[in-house]
Amino acid sequence: KPPATETNPALEDPTPDYMNLLGMVFSMCGLMLKLKWCAWIAVYCSFISFANSRSSEDTKQMMSSFM
Amino acid sequence: MKNFYIFIAILFIPWSFSMAKYDEFEDGDDIMEYDDNDFAEFEDVNEDAVTESPQRIITTEDDEEEATVELEGQDENQEDFDDADAQEGDTESEPYDDEEFEGYEEKPDASPNKNKDPITIVNVPAHLQNSWESYYMEILMVTGLLAYIMNYIIGKNKNNRLAHAWFNTHRELLESNFALVGDDGTNKEATSTGKLNQENEHIYNLWCSGRVCCEGMLIQLKFLKRQDLLNVLARMMRPASDQVQIKVTMNDEDMDTYVFAVGTRKALVRLQKEMQDLSEFCSDKPKSGAKYGLPDSLAILSEMGEVTEGMMDAKMIHFLTHYADKIESVQFSDQFSGPKLMQEEGQLTKLPETKKTLLFTFNVPGSGNTSPKDMESLLPLMSMVIYSIDKAKKFRLNREGKQKADKNRARVEENFLKLTHVQRQEAAQSRREEKKRAEKERIMNEEDPEKQRRLEEAALRREQKKLEKKQMKMKQIKVKAM
């Protein structure tokens, strides 16, 4: 009997992608406008994104988002 | 040589600027603008320079000096250099000497006193201090992060434990019913890994295959996001529970054509809106299952009454009544194609692909505060799944039912075709135009003029034939109409 190849579940949770984007936006804001709180929020966003991410995603990308 | 001169000129400019500034520093009043430390040497000379300063200031810029004077001692001098001439100022002060001689004396007396006033120490602003207080923001944030990380580790471990507890309790049953348990799809051939496939920190998959009537069974353990602190906090507001979703894909020949669903009323209403097949084939609202002895919490959505009659046999009713609290929804469908695709009408040209599927969604008891022991209570539900597979294979509609079902499906297809008629016409039109263009290009690209001529003639003849055909059709329609 053939095995299943479910790589993309029907309903994909967009949370990690949104959090990644938010993190990048906040980190840019924090850098350009020199706002400390922006940078902290960016760190939080990247943590949340990591927590919600799928195991199939690149670890390298995760590490770079932490940066 | 030219470059050298340019270089010298460029060097000269900043030097001249620095010299100009240095001139200004020699004025006593300007000194007060700048840091005392840099020009401490001028402080002693200040009072001596003050008397000379009026003259110098007059020659340079009066306005600036008047604006920047800060020393009390210089107030007298301000009066002096307000006048054009310093000497004149001295002479003018003579008439005042008699009247305000004492006052005049006091002033110099007063100024040293003022100079001896204690210096008020201003508190160093918080951000320049070097104590814990200035870092309270950082401390707060780092504490928050630590809390998040701890919650992540705890949540991840709990989900892991729950998943393995579930798998251990169900392993035997699954292995007895399926030849292949646990395949992550990484190898080309089907290999039984016998392990859960972890997709996420809160989602675990298991693919089982190798049973008589079904292609395979996908079990998804959808736990709550215990590893995400935000989710944990959100759940405090709105309690939710872990879910086990089972999707059995049936072979084409092993299931008849019907659409049927049973579950909590809320879940069915939601599914009816979301799912393509339920919305198209089950047009009625969910009916109460009390007729069949089901508890009030459960409702039934069905394509036809006959299907409900057939499905609701004694054993099924037994399962549903006993485990009603754990059942979220059960859906049997031969037209399953997933949730409704939110597409624009222009893009939908084909009906979505359908598969014969049995879907089960169970809630894990405990509503969030589950323990590994609760997994054992889900074992009977798995038996229900196995039983349903066999039942779906055995159940066949009678002739009437089959006709009704076929009519329904034809109706749905017709509706769909009507909707997309315009789009399909446009698509056909564009395809025809593409063909013509391709032909013309071919003709143009032909180098041999003879061949070109022949191809053109052939194209013309084809077009003429088409026109004639159309005209014939129109004539036929007219005749029929008459």
Automatic annotation (TrEMBL), chain A:
The alphabetical list of record keywords is: Membrane, Transmembrane, Transmembrane helix
Is Transport there in the keyword field?
A: no
The transmembrane residues are: 21-47
Name any Gene Ontology BP term.
protein insertion into ER membrane
Q: Does the keyword Oxidoreductase apply?
A: no
Which InterPro entries does the UniProt entry name for this protein? ASTER (IPR005351)
Q: Which GO terms describe its cellular component?
A: endoplasmic reticulum membrane
Recall the GO molecular function terms of this protein's record: protein folding chaperone
Write out the annotated subcellular location.
Membrane
Entries under Pfam families matching the protein:
ASTER
Q: Which family does it belong to?
A: Belongs to the Asterix family.
User: What is the protein's name according to its record?
Assistant: PAT complex subunit Asterix
Q: Which organism is it from?
A: Podargus strigoides
Source organism phylogeny: Eukaryota, Metazoa, Chordata, Craniata, Vertebrata
From TrEMBL, chain B:
> Any idea where this protein resides?
Rough endoplasmic reticulum membrane
Renumbered to this chain, the Basic residues biased-composition regions fall at 472-482
Question: Region (Disordered) spans which residues?
Answer: 47-118, 422-482
KW Membrane (keyword) present:
yes
Q: Where is the composition biased (Acidic residues)?
A: 60-103
The signal peptide here is 1-20
Membrane-topology descriptor: Single-pass type I membrane protein
Keyword field:
Membrane, Signal, Transmembrane, Transmembrane helix
User: Mind listing the GO molecular function terms for this protein?
Assistant: calcium ion binding
- What is the official name of this protein in its record? PAT complex subunit CCDC47
Annotated PANTHER family: ADIPOCYTE-SPECIFIC PROTEIN 4-RELATED (PTHR12883), PAT COMPLEX SUBUNIT CCDC47 (PTHR12883:SF0)
Please give the InterPro entries that the UniProt record associates with this protein.
CCDC47 (IPR012879)
**Where does the record place a coiled coil?**
none
Coarse class of the primary localization is: endoplasmic reticulum
Q: Which organism is it from?
A: Podargus strigoides
* GO CC, any one term: rough endoplasmic reticulum membrane
Family statement: Belongs to the CCDC47 family.
Q: Name one Pfam family in it.
A: CCDC47
